[in-house]
Amino acid sequence: MKFYFFHLMPYQDIDPDFLEHNKSSWINLPNTYYDPKKGAKLYHRYLDELELADTLGFDGVCVNEHHQTAYGMMPSPNVLAGALSRRLKKATIGVIGRALPIVDNPLVIAEEFAMIDNLMEGRFIAGFVRGIGCEYHASMTNPGFSHERFREAHDLIVRAWAEPGPFEFYGKHYHFQYVNLWPRPYQSPRPPIWIPSQGSTETVEFAAHPDRKYTYIITFSPVASVRKNLLAYRDQCEEYGYECPPEQLGWAMPAYVAETDEIARKEAAIHIESLFNKFIMSPAQYKLPPGYSSLGSYKAVMEGKYKVRENYLTCDALIENGMFLCGSPDSVVSKLQEYQEEMGFGNIAPMLQFGTLPAELTEKNLRMFAEEVIPKVKHLGVLKETVAAE
Amino acid sequence: MAEHTSETMTLAGCEIEVLRGGKGPPLVFLHGAGGAHNWMPYMDRLAEHHKVYIPSHPGWGRSDTPDWLDGMGDLAYFYLDFLDAVGEDGVHLVGNSLGGWLALEVAVRATNRIRSLTLVSAAGIHVEGVPKGDIFLWDADERVYNTFYDPKFAEARLAKQPSEEDADIALKNHFSTAKMAWHPRFYNPELQKWLHRIDVPTLILWGDSDKVFPLAYGETMQKLIPGSTLTVIEKCGHLPQQEKLDHFIAAVTTFTADHNGGA
């Protein structure tokens, strides 16, 4: 199993009462809540944490993209990947991911990813997402074209990496006379691609396709839904006629490890609750603009999921439903063993900083996870022939 | 209630529903974002004066959602085909909100079938410094309250439990509205350059308390369309045909009667 420390970089210094005067931490939360002096310090602290993960032996570190929100300060994750690229000695960088449909020129993403891949001499993972609904309000990208633009931008980027240029590309949304990428990616024909998802049949069919075999990462979901989606992906691989290897499956979740279950809960509770009840908060119409998903799933989501989310999510409830992996090293190890055996994933992307979790607890969490969890589970989800080769 | 029928028409591979009723000079009503698949009192009242056609746009109501529907230009050409297919000369074209924008897109392309144009709280243009309402960030209740001046209308609307079909259609309409109007938000930057081409009598009707497109939009539209007149309805929100039905009917039918040519 491989371990990637995933950072969301929340603007954790925000006035804790911001939701008393605002509906949402996204889109139109006034940016006067952001203090650049505090923000600058946070950027450096968070980068230090990612660099620490490298020295602690994590296989990689991950950043991602969100706009106009206190939830994450990374509208351009590639800037941070650039900053990290000269500092990481062994770890891989995953940008998981860039929201393809919301840019008008996807070749910019192809170029920047190729640059990072060169700087990292191949220790780079490219993540592609559609971007959550809020990004469509912030960027004014028409959600009704989200799926089309994702597919088309994806095709363009992957061809730009793999095919000799120049060539022409004329799609419905993107039109180029000369596609001719400088630099070409370091990895050939291209960097590995991860598809973070919250589970949709369309995404599973797309990512598992034999032409692609992209690593499918379930994010921010109760364990029941992680199980359902990862198994659906494995079934889809079988339907395509091949067995899904562990490295093609992953799970990204907030995690906290401490000396005992009790200490872990006590230290993490208010911070994980700040993530799920404040930083992530926005009304349904912010998260789900019309056309972003099909009529049927829109209806189901509006009626189901978001109604549930209206309740305050406690730390205990989050641990209970498996959205938050929290406890002593033994507890976390045994859960990971159980889940891994059942679901067969080969990648874990724990978010070891979340919400208002302060620097000292984040560092403690990183160290305990690296020293007391990783060594006990890293042999799981590794193909036997790979072990033999080592 | 006047007799009315529901018919289907197929144009450009797309089947649409058209509500029809009344006798007299032909009037085509282009509905707004909320659609018009149920026969409403304003349709009844218009049908006392006109032979009315109320099509549900491609993507709305019980009409198909064709693969070719990507933007307002597609709807504009569809309705040029529609006017040819209906075959009426001298149509009074009335459009509300998104339907008003559509009427403008049709009229800048060709007015040969059109006798007069009535724009009711119409989308389609941008007025610098006058923010529009954001129907996509409002929740379902806010959308209703912000549609009316008098909250009683909103309360009455919200008190009604929609049928399953109506609820599904409302969602479908909302999706199609986003596809047409998400970006640029409820307007076409090119349109403003060509509104001078409109060479038919034009009435612009606006509620003084429209929270979706404030009155300044009506005032600007009046300046951009040669010879047009603006009539403001007091204590009225975005849907005069519902909130001020008598005013709406009087304004529209007086105007169409003045422009019925030899009829």
Protein described:
The complex is a heterodimer of chains A (390) and B (263). Chain A contains 15 helices and eleven strands. Chain A has helices at residues 36-56, 77-85, 106-119, 133-139, 146-162, 201-208, 223-239, 261-279, 284-287, 295-303, 305-309, 315-320, 329-343, 359-377, 384-389; strands at 2-6, 60-63, 92-99, 124-129, 167-170, 175-179, 193-197, 215-219, 249-257, 325-327, 347-351. Chain A has an eight-stranded parallel β-barrel, surrounded by seven helices. Chain B is of the alpha/beta class and 263 residues long. Chain B has one domain (4-258): Alpha/Beta hydrolase fold, catalytic domain (Rossmann fold, 3-Layer(aba) Sandwich), CATH 3.40.50.1820. Helix content of chain B is 36%, strand content 19%. The longest helix of chain B has 18 residues, at 164-181. Chain B is globular and about 40 Å long. At the A-B interface, helix 9 and helix 10 of A face helix 6 of B.
Rounded radius of gyration of chain B (Å): 17 Å
Task: Give the percentage of residues in beta strands of chain A.
Answer: 15-25%
CATH superfamily of chain A: Luciferase-like domain
Helix content of chain A: 40-55%
Number of helical segments with 4 or more residues of chain A: 15
Count of individual beta strands of chain B: 8
- Tally of alpha and pi helices of chain B: 9
Beta-strand percent range of chain B: 15-25%
